[in-house]
Amino acid sequence: MVPLSYYLLLSGFLFACGVLGFLIKRNIITIFMSIELMLNGVNLSFVAFAAHWHVLAGQIFVFFVMVVAAAEATVGLAIIIAVYRTRETLNVDQVNLLKL
Amino acid sequence: MNPMLNLWLIPVLPLAGAAINGFLGKKSSRQAVTTIALFFSAAAFAMALWVAMRFSSLALPYHEYLAHWIRSGTFSVDFEFYLDQLSLVMLLVVTGVGFLIHIYSVGYMWDDPSYYRFFCYLNLFMFFMLTLILAGNYLQMFIGWEGVGLASYLLIGFWFTKDSAASAGKKAFIVNRIGDFGFLIALFLIIKHLGSLNFDRVFQSVLPLSAETAGAGLLTAIGILLMVGAAGKSAQIPLYVWLPDAMEGPTPVSALIHAATMVTAGVYMVSRSHIIFERAPMALTVVAIVGTLTAFFAATIGIVQTDIKKVLAYSTVSQLGYMFMACGVGAFSAGIFHLMTHAFFKGLLFLAAGSVIHAVGGEQDMRKMGGLRTKIPWTFWTMTAGTLAIAGIPGLAGFFSKDEILWRAYQASWVYWLVGLVTAFITSFYMFRLWFMTFFGEYRGEAESGHGSDSAQDAHGSHGHGGIHESPMVMVIPLVILAILSVVGGYVGVPGSLGGSNHFDKFLGPVFHVSAPAGAQNALGEKGAPEQETEGPEPKTGASTELMFTGISVLAALLGFTLAWQLYYRNPQLPAKIAISMQGAYQALVHKYYVDELYGALFVKPLIDGSTRILWQGVDRKIIDAAVNDAGDGARHLSDEARHMQSGNIRSYAGWIAAGSAVVIAFMVWMAVSR
């Protein structure tokens, strides 16, 4: 049986990759994918704990997260398309109307 | 049971006058202001006379309780009025002389643009002075005491656009504050140790105490502190410096406040507290020494003054010194007697001086007067009466009172008597010097047209003068009345040695002889045997001695007259030569012994410098201002840096969030590990 720590390390690694991608990348699509990566990193630790402690709550949490992520993906993609249509770019540094 | 006298009306009447004139006077005519002011001061005088007439039927001292004021534990102060022989004398002097000076002021101030303001202040002064006199406890007295100081300040600085007047007012106020400080501490001591400020209760609890002959104790401390207060208000050494400067005020003010009434408040207060003083011989000695020194030094300064009002101012300081000398040797009724006669003749002298100033168009320098005898006869004759009275010429008011003081001073110590006698000689000299310089010889002023230019701030400088002229009747009548009083005022207290029976002393007797003899005995030094009648008719053996002393003081007065006659009438060039030959002494006198300079160097300059360097530039600018400014600057710098966090860049916000969560997680992990 694979020990829990392996799952957790992988989960942390995925999450860190997501954070890093979110901070470094300028393309909105890439940032969006980084968010998904972070969510899935968290999901992985949820299921790992659920399996380890034999508690179903973790698995249910994962379903919730997946549903919310799907909803978020539709809204997010819609926003991205709207941004692209108005500004003709996907670079977040140029989406700065709220900045003084 | 005493009838209800409604004493409270006496001070409140002038207050009503002050209020009406103060609020409505600006818009009313001069006639209306005059009517209001004179009516209310006359009403106070009439009421005082009415009280005096009913006086014999009263059980004394008469108390009138008005209202509670302060209640704190067992300590309480009420609004109450107190009338005995002493306050009656003061009451009549203040309302009487005050009323006369009100009349005089109508003429003197008529052309002043702030006519209504003058009478408002004058009535206000009467209110506070009467409160002081009729007070039934020390605190109420203190209200009046402070109030007359306020009125004095307002009236000295009446022509406040003139710089010297404004600063003279401030000087008077500040110097008085120093004295009041002593008075207040005395009151605190009385509250702490005697538990009350009510005159009756304080004196009742002091009465059984024995005199503090060996060393100083509580009563000595109270006495000396009260004397500090009295020295401030009554212009004694070392706090007399404000009074000569106070001559910046209008002349009626000098007459009323700075000669006749307010400055005598200190004498009144010491006399009122005589039970305390009699049990504190050391305090009494301080009073006597201060009084004697003041009398002498002020008189010497008076010799060389050339401003007619300054001469009278130093004369006032000197005469107040006499009164304190009398109090200091335990002769309180002699002091009050001199207070009364002094109110008459010094009030008269000031008013006459005002009339002279009026006549020559605002000139106050005696060197520019002269030969006015025939031009202003009324002023001349009344001023002559006043001069003779103050010089101590037999038969006039000042003679009896001054002689009484000198005789009583001799019984305490020949030193007091000798200094007093020399002072009497000097007094006579400078008064006749003033008299000769003003009224005799040639007129030394400029031509008739010249006046009014440099003295426009004086009441009458502005209106067109037609040469030297006598004052209007409204000013002459008070002069005449005061002159009559100066002549006959002394006959109420003719001493036994001159065939009188000293009614005045007997009248005040019940006030000053309530004390147990033990205290008085110590206070009086070698004077031992007939204690109950210390101030009554002298024993037969003393009469001839007293007569001899009277002769000596008359001689001193005549000597002063002769000298002044020689120097200022026969040989008018001589004084200048003497001044040159005695340059050092002369300069010291002209500069008033450099006391103002000394105080300036000792107190005023260090205070100003300290305030400037330490308090202003040090504490205020370097600490308080700097703290405020640095706090502001710091906040601005900090926000300037922190502003960069709000970049508007989503990824940097995310970075901050990530960093923040990392910190939180690290903290939680650390907590978990260290548990």
Structural notes for this entry:
The complex is a heterodimer of chains A (100) and B (675). With 100 residues, chain A is an all-alpha fold. Chain A has a domain at 26-92: Helix Hairpins (Orthogonal Bundle), CATH 1.10.287.3510. Chain A has 3 helices and no strands. The radius of gyration of chain A is 17 Å and the shape is elongated. The N and C termini of chain A lie far apart (55 Å). The model of chain A has no long low-confidence stretch (mean pLDDT 90). Chain B has a two-stranded antiparallel ribbon. Chain B is mainly α and 675 residues long. In chain B, helix 2 packs parallel to helix 4. The chains are: A mainly alpha (100), B mainly alpha (675). Chain A binds chain B through residues 19, 22-24, 26, 31, 92-93, 95-96, 98-100, and chain B through 647-651, 654-655, 658.
The end-to-end span of chain A amounts to: 55 Å
CATH architecture of the domain at 26-92 in chain A: Orthogonal Bundle
Instruction: Give the fraction of residues assigned to helices of chain B.
Output: 55-70%
From the helix content, strand content and strand pairing of chain B, which structural class follows? mainly alpha
Q: Give the biggest sheet of chain B.
A: 2 strands, antiparallel
User: What's the total helix number of chain B?
Assistant: 26
Instruction: Classify the secondary structure makeup of chain A into a structural class.
Output: mainly alpha
Distance between the termini of chain B: 90 Å
Rounded mean pLDDT score of chain A? 90
CATH topology of the domain at 26-92 in chain A: Helix Hairpins
> What is the residue-mean pLDDT of chain B, rounded to a whole number?
86
As laid out across the biggest beta sheet of chain B, the strand order is 1-2
List how many beta strands of chain B DSSP finds. 2
Shape of chain B: globular
The Rg value of chain A, from CA coordinates, equals 17 Å
Q: What is the rounded Rg of chain B? A: 31 Å
Share of helical residues of chain A: over 70%
